[in-house]
Amino acid sequence: MALEEKVFARLGELGAATVYEAHGQKGAIDPAIKPLDPTSVLAGRAVTVKLDPADNWFIHVGLMHAGPGDVLVVDIGGYTDAGPWGDVLTLAAQERGVAGLVIDGAVRDSRDIVESGFPVFTRGVCIRRTTKRQIGAINVPVTIGGIEVVPKDIIVGDADGLVRVPGVEGQAALKSAEAREAKEIGQREQLRQGASTLDLLGLSWPESIARLGSET
């Protein structure tokens, strides 16, 4: 496994919440974009697609730019009254080794997608058809759930949500997430030994009150 793929895999294991908290509490994507299957785990580099509402021509084009380790990130401006992605595109993506889909829009054939095991994070589900007439854009900056994503950014997602990490910060994000995970493992052990969460967070009475008083 290549180093980059190992970074993606480990970030996925650590989870979106840990990556977000550890790496500066930035890049959290609108929680309204959810996994179809809450057991899905997603981590990879962004291949971005911008579509007009109710048209999916360029989602097919974008898929041809994606491969192993890539996450197709599709900006439809939050439009959910048509489903430009379904079971056929899911199979095509799996055959290319694509890591998953994040779409600020809707999908269809949701049951088949879940059964396929392909990670899909979407704002909605809609059976209405799309056209194939409007020219979109591939590998340009897009906005997904209020967060700008550029090509080769890292996307991490699971049941807790989605977070974007700038592509050049992957190793740093992994290092900080590993450190946070190690800290939390230590905290869990202290809890098993009788400590309280107030103790662990330095919020015990009356010390925390005294500290707050000194800060006013």
Automatic annotation (TrEMBL):
GO molecular function terms listed in the Swiss-Prot or TrEMBL record: 4-hydroxy-4-methyl-2-oxoglutarate aldolase activity; metal ion binding; oxaloacetate decarboxylase activity
Residues that, per the record, bind substrate: 86-89, 108
SUPFAM superfamilies (alphabetical): RraA-like
The protein's name in its UniProt record: Putative 4-hydroxy-4-methyl-2-oxoglutarate aldolase
Quaternary structure and partners: Homotrimer.
Cofactors (names): Mg(2+); a divalent metal cation
Catalyses which reaction(s): oxaloacetate + H(+) = pyruvate + CO2; 4-hydroxy-4-methyl-2-oxoglutarate = 2 pyruvate
Any single Pfam family the record assigns to this protein: RraA-like
The enzyme's E.C. designation: 4.1.1.112, 4.1.3.17
Species this chain originates from: Brevibacterium aurantiacum
Keywords: Magnesium, Metal-binding
Similarity comment: family membership: Belongs to the class II aldolase/RraA-like family.
